[in-house]
Every structure is written in structure tokens, then in C-alpha cells.
Amino acid sequence: MIGIVGTVPDLQLPLIHGKARLVDHHFEIKGRSIAINRGTPALIGAALKASEYVRCPETYAFLVGDTGKGDGSRKLYDFLTQHLHEFEFKVLTFHYLQPDVDWHNKVLFAVESMQTRPILIADAGFMYAAKMSGQSESYDFFTPDAGELAFLADELAPHPFYTRGFILHPRDNIPDLIRQAYQHQNAARHLLVKGESDYIVHKSQVVQKVDQPCFDAMEAIGGTGDTLTGMLSVLCGADFKLTNAAILASLANRWSGHYANPSPATQVIELIEKIPQALVGMSKVRNRKGTN
Amino acid sequence: MFEFFKKKKPTPNKKQRGLSADLGILVFENTSDVIQAENALKRAGWSVRVMGPPPSIQTGCDLVIEFPLIEELNILRELDNANVSPLKVVPVTAPLLEPVSLFQTKDFGDYLMVRAANMKITIGKKDTKIVNISGGGCPDVPYLAREMIGKTLAEAPRPRDLGHTLCGYALELAYEELLRK
User: Which helix (H) or strand (E) holds A271?
Assistant: First the structure.
């Protein structure tokens, strides 16, 4: 199984965990139907959609309602520290969670207690906490956008909100920021840097730059980073070599944009619906498949 | 938002503020309380600004309020009236982190996008309707997007009223920048 940990902006949602199943524009988990929109539901929606076309283990999600106060995230952190050792995952992806260094460290400790260590992916708030904890190198993937990469590169910034001004124009100096992030041990073993061009990085070396097809409007669409991380999780779970999984996820995300013909007003669900088309269209590159 | 306001209350001038020993920070339990306190203090005309906490008290998603220490009792009374009390008051002994103050604007023709730190907000130019919110990683981002998308800038709730985290605060900055456009 692949595991996905995150939040849903609905305070009525208690902590739930179970296998997720796609049903139209929703996914079902533990008898509840959750709309696929930006945030962790978009990640799960993309993962489930991609799973229809890539042979991948089932998707198991840990979710809780949280609208930013962090109460739900803390409940989830607490649950994970107590129960994570009871689960076995090939990939474990952490997503929209309230950044909290102390809880991050407890959860990472719980991961180390699992019988088999999963491939660890951190995105969004959990990636912020991972960087701030100084334990970035424990992760297999971080998936920052350009602004978040600047935050990783700034050894003093505790959150992207405080990234120092001289670092804040990242578009032209992505390779420098990658180098700085690794120099200060603030990067995971792999990075998938999302942006106008996507950079796939392994141990500070840029393995591939993916920049086609390219649509300016994608930058404005909320959730395109979530779908990319969802597909990355599935492809890692489907035994692709990690760098190849990142390249394919990047390409599939871009091609889903191509088929959706996006404008800045396009909603992410429109892209998720195109994922199967994108993956089928990319079947030619499937021969990249290798082993870790 | 981070400019000092000099309205009703007397505050030290810039020269007087030059020494960090003149300044203190109000530390709150969470970012929501910081935003609520900032709203209350600014409404009352106090000269305060939101900053990043010193490393010794950072937890991951923090803001503190910097204020002139000499006004501590008055400010605490004001906060008490607003039912939002700080966990502690600490003198500033080292430089505080400056929040992001740079904005990037992208013109898509019919749409305009503004980015502040890691948050982006996009509106239709003709009707100022918010069509997308992207970026960020804290759990209030999907919530804010749900509440704001599809509404005009005038109709939408402000991120500072609904947001609870630094991402929500960054979105407020982007929103304010759009209002200035």
C-alpha cells in the first residue's frame, strides 16, 4: 500500500483512516465521501486516478479535519506516533499538516519504528517542519515549488514567509538554490522542484529538467503541485526507479494540463480528470521503468 | 500592513526605536491569536508590527507582535479588553525575522496573479472575481480557497479574518497588494 497523510478543510471530519476509493468526483474512505479539490483531497484524487492506469498498491489515507488552527493535525500526529508501527507501506507521503517541529520529530521517530521503512515523501506543511527540524536528509523526496525551494536554500528561514529578500527571486537561479539547500543539509535525497521547468534532483545533482509541454496558466491553478505529488507517490509505489518516477510524474502532470487546455481560472479537478489520458499518451516513455 | 501606524496613541519615533532594548514582543499560543491581537491593536491605533520570533521560541508556524516596551501595560490592557492575551512578553534582544515584503505580479491578459512569499491569488480583471488560490502548505489554505474562490475581491472574506497560519497571513498580503492594483 501507499500511505497518504493530510488534512481536509472540514472541522466536522474526525480522524479517519482506511483505503480510499475513487467514485466520480469524490473519493470514499470509511463510508465517507470527500470532494476532490485542492489540498490533500487533490493529492489523493490524482493518486487514485493514476492508479487506474499504473499497476500500484492500494492507497490508504490518514485524514482529519483542520482549517488551520492545528488541532486536527495534532490529533493526527498523536495517532501516528502511537500506531504507525502497526502499518506497512511502500510509500508514505506527508502533506497539508500544521508545521510543528516537535510533532514532526515524534512522527519521524515512529516511522523509524516501522518494520519496513517506506519511501518517505514530504510536501507542503510537513516539508516545512521537516526542514526546520534539521532532518531533511531522512526523506527520499521533497517536492517544493520555486518559492519553497528558496525557503529550503535559506538556512535561517523557519517558514517560506520569512525567506530573506535576496533569495526571493528564484526563477532564474534554481540550480544555485538547489546547491544551497544541499549545502545546508536542508534537502531530501531527491527533490522534485515544481515550476515553469521542473527539476528532478538526486543528491544535489540535477538529473533531468522537464519543461515541455508548458502552460503559463498552470502556475495560477491551485492544486497542481498536489496532483504532481500524488502521481509521484503512485509511481514510486509502482516500483519505478525514484528519479524516473519523478520524471514521469512531471510529464504526466504537464500532459494533463495539455489535455485540459488550462486558463488561470481552470480548477484542479479538470486536470485530474485528464490524468488517464496523459498517462496513456505517455506510454512510450514507460520503458524508463527500472529498479531502485 | 507592516508599516508603523501613528494614529491615536503616542509612540516612540524611529530614532527612539533604534535600540532593540526599547522593543518587546508579544508571544501568543497560535497565529490566529496573533492576527486577532494585531487587528485589535491596530484598530485602537497602536504602533505595532508583526514579525518572526527569535529562534529560541520558534515552533514552525509563528508570528509575534513587536511593540514599544514602554507601552506594555497599556497594550496588555487593550488586549485584555479584546479577550486575547499573550502567553508572555519578551524584550527584544536580537534582530527579529522580517516577513516577506516583496510581491510578484503576473499578467495573464484577462487575469492577474499576485504572489506574496509562497502564496498566489488570481483574479479576473473585468469583475475582480477570485478564480484561483495556489501555493502554501498550511491547512487553512484549502479552507481559504474554498471560502474565497468565485467571489469578487469586495465580496470575499479577508484572509486575515479566516486564516490561522503564516500561509494565511501571506495570502492576506497578496490580497492587499491586489487591492492596491
Answer: helix A268-272
Q: Which residue has the cell 510533532?
A: A103
In CATH, what number is assigned to the domain containing residue B147? 3.30.390
Last-in-domain residue among B91, B113, B140: B91
- On whether both B75 and B132 belong to a single domain, the answer is no
> Do B131 and B158 belong to one domain?
yes
- Contact between A148 and B97 using a beta-carbon 8 Å cutoff: no
Say if the Cβ atoms of B118 and A147 lie within 8 Å. Answer: yes
C-alpha grid cell, residue B155: 465580496
Partners of A122 in beta bridges: A94, A142
Whole-structure pTM value: 0.87
State how far residue A217 is from chain B, nearest Cα, in angstroms.
Answer: 8
Q: What is the pLDDT along chain B (181 residues), one digit of tens a residue?
A: 333 333 445 444 433 334 455 888 898 887 778 888 998 998 898 888 888 887 776 665 678 899 888 888 889 999 999 999 898 888 887 777 777 767 889 999 999 999 988 899 999 999 999 999 999 999 999 999 999 999 999 999 999 888 888 888 889 989 999 998 8
For residues A205 and A188, what is the distance between their CA atoms, to the nearest angstrom?
Answer: 12
ipTM: 0.90
Cell 540550480 belongs to residue: A175
Handedness of CA A183, A185, A189, A193 (dihedral sign): negative
For residue B67, is it within any domain? yes
